[in-house]
Specification:
This protein has about 90 residues and is an alpha/beta fold. The chain has helices at about 10-20, 35-40, 55-65, 85; strands spanning about 5, 30-35, 50, 70. The protein has a domain at about 25-75.
């Protein structure tokens, strides 16, 4: 089973991955990040890093291909792009 974590380089995303690694093999975890290089630098070896942004539907669809479960971590309230704008469809 493939499990994806969005916002994986953020504080909560990194904590979630550390907890998940206690019960799931690294090869079954996909980190969805905005900056691939940052993800590869910060995240444990063996985790697949896929680049996507909440505002890019095509990239997000590609990043979530083959994923069975998703831990969706939302953006920071009051950040440069509002939650409403990010998740508007």
């Amino acid at each position: 089973m493939k499990i994806a974590i969005s916002a994986a380089t953020g504080h909560f995303g990194q904590l979630a991955i550390q907890e998940l690694l206690k019960t799931v093999a690294a090869g079954d975890i996909v980190a969805v990040v905005r900056n691939r290089e940052k993800g590869q630098r910060l995240l444990p070896a063996g985790i697949t890093v896929r680049q996507a942004d909440y505002t890019d539907e095509v990239a997000m669809t590609t990043a979530l291909a083959g994923i069975d479960r998703l831990l969706f971590i939302s953006s920071v309230p009051g950040g440069p792009i509002s939650r409403r704008q990010r998740y508007k469809r």
